[in-house]
Design goal:
Blueprint: E1 2-6, E2 14-20, E3 23-30, E4 33-38, E5 40-41, E6 46-47, E7 53-55, E8 58-60, E9 67-69, E10 84-85, E11 87-90, E12 93-96
Antiparallel strand pairs: 1-12, 2-3, 3-4, 4-10, 5-6, 7-8, 8-9, 11-12
Bound molecules: FE2/S2 (inorganic) cluster.
Length: 105
Amino acid sequence: MEEVCKISDLSEGKGKRFIIDDEEIAIFMVNGKVYALSNICPHQHSAIIYDGIIEEEYVVCPAHGWKFRLSDGKKENGYNGLKSFPVKIIDNKVFVDVSKSKINW
Ligand code: FES
């Protein structure tokens, strides 16, 4: 597990971009819960997922609107998703395990 940031560095309903162990990560806080997904949209391999719009339990890529579930990175149809990473909150700090990504292709 890598320490990424403090909870207070995150804003409700928004994403933030981090690079951990050469991995581009987008961290979101939605309804007080923290999620870590790959920051690279599989559509055009753009590092822009952090800038996505939250729609209920999904993040919508700002480029062309592909939708990914925050909890596991899957698309609405259950296919072609983003990698998702386990998150732990300890003492108001956010830890992400980049070695345990789940690839949802
Ligand atoms: S780059 Fe994300 S939907 Fe096109």
